[in-house]
Design goal:
Helix content: over 70%
Largest sheet: none
Structural class: mainly alpha
Order of helices and strands: HHH
Shape: flat
Number of helices: 3
Strand content: under 5%
Radius of gyration: 19 Å
Distance between the termini: 65 Å
Number of strands: 0
Length: 99
């Protein structure tokens, strides 16, 4: 029961820093004049990485190593799928440079 209490306390402390983080990220985006579509992909990828790792760790803690491996593979496939627009843009830019 104490573990759950500590986890909730840490989670609440973490939530208090979220507005500060988003404010700093918004400031950096506006100063760098970066296309927000690319940043959305990057942050979605970051979220997928965290959730995949968290889920796989829980599966391993429960002794389900096969499920943990499947979760990691699924997360990697999702990263490839979500990053396809970035790769497409990169290839288009390389093709323009080569012409």
């Amino acid at each position: 029961m104490a573990v759950i209490g500590v986890c909730v306390f840490v989670f609440i402390l973490m939530l208090s820093d979220v507005p500060i983080i988003f404010g700093k990220v918004d400031e950096l985006i506006s100063r760098a004049e970066i296309d927000t579509d690319y940043l959305k992909i990057i942050f979605k990828s970051l979220g997928i990485c965290y959730l995949t790792q968290f889920s796989a760790d829980i599966c391993r803690d429960c002794g389900e190593n096969a499920i943990a491996s499947a979760v990691e593979i699924f997360g990697k496939i999702q990263l490839v799928i979500i990053s396809l627009p970035l790769f497409e843009s990169l290839i288009e830019n390389v093709m323009v440079i080569m012409e």
